[in-house]
Amino acid sequence: MKLQIALDVWSLKEAFSILEEIAPNIDIIEAGTPLVVNEGINSLRQIKERYPNKLFVIDAKIADEYYIAKKAFDAKADFTTVLGILSDESVKAAIDIGKQEGKEVIVDLMNVKNKIKRAQEVKKLGANYVLVHCGIDEQKSGKTPLGELISLKKNVDINVAVAGGINLDTIDDYIKAKADIIVVGGALIKNSDRREISKAMKDKISKAEEN
């Protein structure tokens, strides 16, 4: 079980400022979509160069040109994301590039109606990871990704990353549900106590894995 920070910020300067405080407690660093759009994929290699021992995700949310996956891997990403609502051919093309590079593609199940069925399908296409999450607008209505996580873990033999409003008070539920990757964003990047909170989150995960 790994803890991932979603750097949904607009500049590398802000991203590095946050990482200085929390990097020791994080397993995976994610360059969020705002950072990808504003800074450009090529510039994001600086993150992996500064933190070579951390896994690195570029959240490109590939929606059309699968070659973007190659660009993400060229920028030193260990993972990138492709939308699960795409055709099988497009999803598989991104997965195949990942395999060629010795890297991984995470299939984002955003807006997929039947997540169990799609997770089963993309596994057959060669995917090792899916992501289930609630966007900010969904979170405002009180929705969480917990139920979908539990359902996926019960029905599909695939690694599941989970994101969407997870904080120190709720992370225990996601640990109990055995998420493979727990993605935290606003609870860290918007909090002045992010160093202490990230350590407390990592300690909870470590303690659970010891038991």
Word description of this protein:
- The structure is a single chain.
- The protein has helices at 12-22, 33-39, 45-50, 67-74, 88-101, 115-124, 136-140, 146-155, 171-176, 186-189, 194-210; strands at 2-7, 28-31, 55-62, 79-83, 104-108, 129-133, 159-163, 181-184.
- It has 211 residues and is of the alpha/beta class.
- It has one domain: Alpha-Beta Barrel (TIM Barrel).
- Helix 6 links the parallel strand 5 and strand 6 (129-133).
Q: What string gives the helices and strands in order?
A: EHEHHEHEHEHEHHEHEHH
Q: CATH fold name, please?
A: TIM Barrel
Low-confidence stretches: none
The count of DSSP E runs of length 2 or more, i.e. the number of strands, is 8
How would the global form be characterised?
A: globular
Mean pLDDT: 93
CATH architecture: Alpha-Beta Barrel
- How many whole angstroms does the radius of gyration measure? 16 Å
CATH superfamily: Aldolase class I
Largest sheet: 8 strands, parallel, barrel
Number of domains: 1
Report the CATH C-level class. Answer: Alpha Beta
Strand order across the largest sheet: 1-2-3-4-5-6-7-8
- SSE-based structural type: alpha/beta
Query: Count of DSSP helices?
Result: 11
